[in-house]
Specification:
4 copies of one chain form a homotetramer. Chain A has 9 helices and no strands. With 202 residues, chain A is mostly helical. In chain A, helix 6 packs across helix 7 (152-164). Chain A is elongated. The termini of chain A are far apart. Chains in contact: A-B, C-D. Chains A and B meet through helix 7, helix 8 and helix 9 of A and helix 7, helix 8 and helix 9 of B. The structure holds a DNA duplex (21 and 21 nucleotides).
DNA sequence: GATGAATGAGCATTCATTCAT
DNA sequence: AATGAATGAATGCTCATTCAT
C-alpha cells in the first residue's frame, strides 16, 4: 500500500507546511487531522508516521522556529560591540523573523496555550533565553548610558509584545514591507527606551 | 425540579464570572460546558437558559467589554482639548481597562478567533471604532505639531498591540501595579511617537 | 401569575387546535412542547395543566376523533336496511370524516406509532370496532347476494387503507371537493367489491 | 483499534439490514444510533464511517428501493403492448415489491416526512416517475377503450395509496401469500377502473 | 510507508417534565 | 392558572488515535 515515490524526507516538509497553514488559519484546537490529511493527500492514520500526536506536531512546529530565532539572534549579536548596536540588531532581527515566518510565529503566539504543562514549560525555557538576551542588552545600554533610566522588565515585556504582535496584524499582501517595518521598529524602540540620539552622547 | 431560591439575576452573573475564568484559563475551545456547569453547580443543559450556544456566550462576553471600553474612552476624551492630552487620556484609560478587566480583555485578544464569520465581523466593526479613536488623536497631534512625523497606521497598530498585549503577561499578583503601568505607558507612548517634551514646544 | 381572563374551557380548545396543526405539519416526534407553548402564547410548563404528558395529548387527540367517527357511522347505519345501502353509507361517511377532519385523521394514520403499547392497544380496540362494522356490512352484502364472491378480510383492509389514505394526499385547497370524493369512492368501492349494478339483480 | 476481520463490504449490508429493522419497528425519529450500533456490534461513532448523518441513512434507504422499484417496473412494462396488460403488470409488480420488501416500503411510506426539504423534494421527483407511469397506463387504457370513463388523477392516487398501504398491515407470517395478493389486486383494480371484461369488448 | 476500519471518550445541545413561587 | 428556573436523561456527532492488513 505504499504510495510510489513517497519518501519521508519529502513528505515531512509537505506535512509541515500544510499544518502551519491550517493552524494559522483555524487555530490549533479548531484544525483537525482530517483536514490535514486531505491537504497532503493522505489518510488521517498515515500522518502518525510523521508525528506521534497532534500536540507533538504543534510542539515541534513552535519549538523549531523558536530555536532558530534564538540561535540566529545570538549569532548576529556576537559581532556587536555596543549595547545600543545590540538593541538595533536584536529588534531588526526579531522583526525580520516575525515577518518572514509570520505564520509560525503567529502560531507560537496564539496556540502555545494548547501545549501540555511539561511541553509548555520546556517551550518557556527557550523563550526565556530570548527574554534574557533583550534584558542583557537593555542592562548593558544602561551601564553604557546610552538609554534613559527605564524599568527593564516591563520595557522588555512591552517591546517583545509589540514585535511578536506584528504577526497578529501583518498581512504579506499588505502595504508594509520588511524594510519599512525594520526601520520603523528600530527607530521606535530607540525612542521608546529613551536612547540618546546618535552623536549626542558626550 | 426547580432549585429553591434560584433567581435569574443572581445566576447570570455567576455564570458570567465562571465562564470568564474558565475561558481565561483553558481557552475557549478547550473549555467545555460540563466544566462550566459544574463550577456554577448546575446541569449542563440548564446553562442554555442563559445563552443559546457556547459561541453566543463567548460573543456576549467579548462584545460587552469592548463596548464598555469604547464608550468609556469616548466619554473621557470628550473633556480633553489637546491632541497630546487625548493621547495621554486614551493610553491611560486603555491600560486601566486591560489591567482591571484583564481576563475578559485577554479572552477578547485570544479567543475572538472562535467566533463565526458574522459575529467576528460585527466584533471587528466595534473594534474599528477604537482604532479610529486613536488614529484621530494621532492625526490631531500631528496637526498640532505636538508629535514627530510618524506613520500613523503602523504607529497605531503597534501601540494597540502593546497595550492590549498587557493582558498576556499581566498577573494581578505580580509586582506591577496599575498606577506604575499607567505612568509607564503614558510616558513610553509619548516617547514612542516622538512627543515634544512638555514645555519644549516653541 | 394567572393570565387575566384565562379559562380552562377556552384554553383547551386552543391548545387542541394548535397541537393538531403542529403534529400534522411536523409529525408527533418532531414537534415539541416549546413550539406548542409559543403557538398558544404560554410557557411550556403551563401546558401541563391541560395534559399530563405529551403522549397523553396525542392519545386524547386520536382517540377522540376515532370515537366520534365510529359513533357517527353507527348512527348513520342504524337507519339502513340493505347491505349495499350500508356499504354506501359507510364509505360516504368515512370519506366525509377524512376530508372534514383530515388533519386529525392524518395524525391517527401516521403518529399512532408513537403511542405506548397499552395506549396503542386501547386505540386498536376502538379501531377494531370500525373494521368489524365494515366486515359485517360486507358479509351481509354477500348473504344478500349484492356483491361478488370476494375475500372479506383483504377487501376490508384495502378499502380502509384507501379511504383513510385520502388524508395523506388530500389538500383542502386542492381541486377535489367533498361531494366529488364521496361519489367517486362510493362508486369505486361498489365496483371494487363487484356489486351487482342497481336494477340488475334478478 | 481496528476489529480484526472487519470489511467494508460486509459491514454496510449488516448496518443496512439492522437500520431497516430498527426504523421499521420504532419509526425513524424514535430509533437512535446507539441502538443501531449495539445491534451491529459497533460503537456509535463508527457508524459514521458508513453514512454522514442519520438523515442521510434514511435517505439512502428509501431512495434506493424507490429507484429499484421504478427501474424494475419500467423494465417489465417495456414488453407489454396493451394498456390493460400494462395495468396488470404494473399492479402485479408493485404488489410484489411491497410484499417482498415490505419493511423498506413501509419506511418509505411513513418516515419520508423526516427528510429535509431538499431530500424530500428529490425523493418526490423519483416518486413522480411512478405516478406518471400509472397515469400513462390509465390514459392509454382509456384511449384503447379498455376501461371506463374514470377521473385519472384520483383513480391513480387511490390505487397507489391502496397498494403502497399494503405494507401497513401486511405481516409476512400472516395468512395472505404473495400470489393471492397479486391476483386479488390485479382483479380488484381491474374492477376498480371499470375494465371491460376480457372478451367482452366488441 | 500507507490504508481501511474501527474505537472510545467526549461534546454541545435538546427536550419533556417538575415544582417553588 | 400560569411562570421562571431548573433537571436529567438522552441524542447525534466529532475526532485523535490504533492497528491488522
Amino acid at each position: 500500500m505504499r504510495t510510489p515515490g513517497s519518501r519521508s524526507d519529502t513528505t515531512w516538509p509537505i506535512i509541515r507546511e500544510a499544518s502551519i497553514s491550517l493552524i494559522y488559519e483555524h487555530g490549533f484546537e479548531s484544525m483537525n487531522t482530517r483536514q490535514l490529511a486531505e491537504l497532503v493527500q493522505m489518510k488521517p492514520g498515515s500522518l502518525y508516521y510523521y508525528f506521534s500526536s497532534k500536540e507533538e506536531l504543534l510542539n515541534r512546529l513552535v519549538t523549531e522556529v523558536l530555536d532558530e530565532i534564538v540561535d540566529d539572534l545570538e549569532l548576529k549579536l556576537a559581532d556587536v560591540d555596543t549595547g545600543l548596536g545590540g538593541l538595533d540588531t536584536f529588534i531588526s532581527g526579531l522583526v525580520e523573523w516575525h515577518v518572514n515566518r509570520h505564520k509560525e510565529t503567529y502560531i507560537a503566539l496564539m496556540d502555545t496555550r494548547s501545549l501540555s504543562e511539561e511541553k509548555l514549560a520546556r517551550y518557556m525555557e527557550s523563550r526565556d533565553r530570548y527574554d534574557q538576551l533583550l534584558d542583557e542588552i537593555l542592562e548593558r545600554c544602561r551601564r553604557e548610558g546610552s538609554i534613559g533610566d527605564i524599568p527593564v522588565r516591563i520595557t522588555r515585556l512591552s517591546i517583545l509584545t509589540m514585535i511578536t504582535g506584528i504577526t497578529s496584524w501583518f498581512k504579506p499582501a499588505g502595504e508594509a514591507n520588511l524594510d519599512d517595518l525594520r526601520d520603523f521598529y528600530v527607530t521606535a524602540v530607540r525612542r521608546f527606551v529613551g536612547a540618546v540620539p546618535v552623536g549626542t552622547r558626550s
